[in-house]
Amino acid sequence: MKAVCRDVCVFVFRHAAEAGSVKYLLLADRDEDAGRWEPLIGRVEKQELAEDAARRCVLGETGLAIKELIVLDKVHVCFRPGKKRVYFEPCFGIDIGAGEPVRSVVQREFIWLDYRPALDQLSHADLRDALSELHAKLSVQP
Question: For the stretch 23-39, what's the b/e string if a residue is b when 16 or more beta carbons lie within 10 angstroms of its beta carbon?
Fold first, then answer.
């Protein structure tokens, strides 16, 4: 079995009008897992740092300017049995300040959610752990 790091996982967020409140962006996920919402998942280019891939993917897939990048300790792990590979996706938080995503051909739908509803939408435990870590780092109320 081979371990591969080819993607990054990015939780895009913005501070809401209410003091201490944060909204998290979730995107309609890919066709093979239709019906779920997920953070932005972006490809790491050859010779590219994961942090740079996260920035590039947010700008390229949403059109949103980046205010701050937060490196998370959590890593999203995926096992693809047919490919006999385990994929590791470093996780990041990116503050975009304000604005709405531009719909792209890669991601069809998007939604902004408060922490708890966003957490409930995530189907993988390690993604929930990554969002919880980011939320704690932002020092906002659950």
Answer: bbbbbbbeeeeeeebbb
